[in-house]
Write a structure and sequence with these properties.
The protein contains 3 helices and 4 strands, in the order H-H-E-E-E-E-H. It is of the alpha+beta class. Helix 1 (4-14) packs across helix 3 (89-101). The two termini are 17 Å apart.
Length: 103
């Protein structure tokens, strides 16, 4: 389990030199993209999905999204709504993103 202090450090690393929410969001997108080195499994509403990619909406209010696949069908969901295994690097990046969002 990642501690609050570790998440705060990661938030600082991902948002360094970012001057507004859009730039900070871009930092979280880069961090999530780097953490997703292959298709990774997560759950949303108790359903297992394969995370194929992460993206960013047109502004900070839209937030980060994930393209997920289940039973051969692709869906776009809010990245922060996904739950990852404890050893997932993407899960740590998403936990930092949630903390930055105030969740």
């Amino acid at each position: 389990m990642t501690t609050a202090a570790e998440l705060d450090t990661l938030i600082e690393e991902l948002t360094v030199d970012a001057y507004n929410d859009d730039e900070q969001l871009s930092g979280f997108l880069v961090g999530a993209e780097e953490a997703l080195v292959r298709c990774e499994h997560a759950t949303i509403a108790g359903v297992t999905v394969a995370v194929m990619s992460v993206d960013c909406g047109p502004d900070a209010r839209t937030g980060l999204t994930a393209r997920v696949m289940r039973d051969g069908t692709t869906h776009e969901v809010a990245l922060a709504d996904l739950t990852f295994s404890a050893d997932s690097a993407l899960g740590v990046a998403v936990a930092a993103y949630r903390r930055w969002q105030g969740r």
